[in-house]
Design brief:
554 residues; alpha/beta; six-stranded mixed β-sheet; two-stranded antiparallel ribbon; 27 helices; elongated
Length: 554
């Protein structure tokens, strides 16, 4: 290494080009990092503050020198900081152009953002490869609005500058420009004869920590010949990563890392979240793997993952419903097992019917244990172990495995369900909707806008106390939030705490079967709640079935 301390201006105002390698991360800084940078800049702008501000490390690996070409340095640490500051310079340039400060705008553009005599890729002093290339180059060119996170960064800093600096003053705007170029310093290190990929793996001096997905990308690209990396990224890796964009279109390294962990575990070996990259590296380093073959395999499992998460439709309707049911339980710990089951189906080792049985078993196992108050703490290891070929190769062996892990039978489940605080413990509406759907009517009611209705209301009126009798307070305390006293209705406000004799008239008009049936009761008290709770418990025992009577199903 040859470390030197240099201000931002000296780094950019040079004959060099800084290339962000294809194996680097996307631009990841967001509001939290932008705010921290802006706070630092505001502090430096105070008249009482002198000196410089240390911005961290920039680590470069020089490219092969070519006659007549600009010297290119691969930026393997410091990408987020150098990109953000370049975006801030773009904002200052744009404001200078807007206010006709042409000399300032041209100075920033020609000496800190581009190399004017050069063309094509060499034209840009900072040059992201593939991932952020279009957004960044669009920002430098200033020809149209920039999308994505870089676009949000530009708008953020433009708003901050407009608030803190009289941008109509060329002197004030130049003051911010000078501050950036002269008072922000980096420790710059150029590596000689070292592997850029290994450096990337070991360095991350400040900013957003490296995630498993970042390190895995680095590892895979390390095994792709340099001349093939752009094509590999374009044809295989980038389409794979795009599947893990969030709602704003930004890449989610956290979810991609979660996918990698699920993928690694689908063979039956538990992997700690913190060991995802190390396990991936250990598995493939010794195998002499092909990056293209691996990318295709990951794409196949990403197809399964999209279906499991509900982002892509399941082609078999009979599989789709129990899968959606399981998905509603927020059961991400089952994902390694689900990947394994879907892969077995693709290989012809598991039929659709058996896959349906497995999905229903998993829902029944999770729901029954939830209602019975059993801990879910060990589910991560439990469901991964179920991927073992000796355990999870058929629906029957999966059944036996789950039964051995504490799957409540009908007697235990129904007893717990009848007295369960369904209203306050979560999944309340989902459970009631599932019980309503179990009626299998040809034109089911739309319950999306319905709310949970307490038949015996949460606040007892004088009429309700009279109807419930001397034990009104005890009945209210014991049964208020239990399934027997809950239903679904779109008219909660109208029903409120009216007497049951009035409520039953409105219940009779309901399109929801379980609610309409309430109108058949002449009164509502402890006996009715208990009886209805038992009936719903028996129905729930069939929806989320368990060991009792299941052998025939298998």
């Amino acid at each position: 290494m040859k470390p030197t301390i240099q201000p931002l201006g000296a780094i950019l105002y040079s004959p060099n080009q800084y290339v962000i390698p294809v194996f680097q991360r996307h631009y990841r800084w967001d509001v939290a990092e932008w705010e921290k940078l802006w706070e630092n800049l505001n502090e430096l702008r105070q008249p009482s503050v002198t000196g410089t501000h240390f911005m961290g490390f920039l680590v470069f690996v020089p490219g092969l020198p070519q006659p007549g070409k600009i010297t290119a340095f691969h930026l393997v640490d410091g990408q987020q900081r150098l990109t953000t500051l370049s975006l801030l310079l773009i904002v200052i340039r744009n404001l200078a152009r807007k206010n006709a400060f042409d000399a300032l705008a041209d100075e920033i553009h020609n000496y800190y953002l581009v190399h004017p005599p050069r063309r094509d890729a060499e034209h840009f002093r900072l040059f992201p490869k593939e991932r952020d290339n279009e957004d960044y180059l669009t920002a430098v060119k200033g020809e149209k609005p920039v999308q994505g996170r870089m676009g949000r960064a530009l708008r953020y800093f433009e708003s901050k500058l407009a608030t803190a600096v009289p941008t109509s003053s060329e002197l004030e705007l130049r003051g911010v420009f000078d501050l950036l170029c002269q008072r922000l310093e980096f420790m710059c290190a150029t590596l000689e004869h070292e592997n850029a990929y290994n450096i990337f793996k070991s360095l991350n001096s400040t900013g957003v920590p490296l995630e498993a997905a970042d390190l895995i990308r680095n590892f895979v690209f390390m095994h792709v010949p340099p001349d093939d990396q752009d094509a590999f990224d374009h044809d295989f890796w980038r389409p794979l990563e795009t599947r893990f964009n969030d709602k704003l279109g930004n890449f989610s390294g956290e979810e991609f890392s979660f996918f990698f962990r699920a993928f690694l575990q689908h063979g039956g070996r538990y992997v700690k979240a913190t060991a995802t990259f190390e396990t991936f590296e250990e598995r493939y380093e010794a195998s002499g793997f092909s990056p293209v073959v691996l990318a295709k395999e990951l794409t196949t499992f990403a197809d399964y993952y999209d279906i499991i998460c509900g982002r892509s439709p399941e082609s078999a309707p009979d599989v789709d419903r129990p899968l959606a049911h399981l998905r509603s339980l927020e059961s991400s710990t089952t994902y390694p097992l689900l990947l394994d089951l879907f892969h077995r189906r693709a290989l012809g080792e598991l039929s659709n019917d058996d896959l349906v049985k497995c999905l229903k078993m998993l829902s029944g196992f999770i729901m029954r244990r939830f209602i019975c108050g059993e801990s879910s703490r060990g589910y991560g290891r439990l469901f991964v172990k179920a991927c073992d070929p000796l355990i999870g190769n058929t629906a029957s062996t999966l059944y036996g495995y789950l039964e051995s892990k504490g799957w409540p039978d009908a007697l235990q489940f129904e007893s717990s369900f009848r007295n369960f605080n369904l209203y306050e413990r979560g999944y309340g509406k989902f459970i009631l909707e599932s019980l309503e759907a179990a009626h299998d009517h040809k034109e089911p009611a739309d319950t999306s806008a319905a709310e949970i209705e307490h038949i015996m209301p949460q606040t007892l009126s004088a009429t309700w106390k009279k109807d419930l009798g001397a034990d009104a307070e005890r009945i209210h305390s014991e049964w208020l939030h239990t399934p027997g006293n809950l239903t679904l209705s779109g008219y909660n406000r109208e029903l409120w705490n009216n007497p049951f004799i009035e409520k039953r008239v409105q219940y009779a008009q309901s399109n929801i079967v379980m609610t309409r049936k309430l109108s058949e009761s002449a009164k509502w008290g402890e006996g009715e709640i208990r009886a209805r709770g038992q009936a719903l418990a028996e129905m729930a025992s069939k929806v989320w079935f368990g060991p009792t009577g299941l052998r025939e199903f298998i």
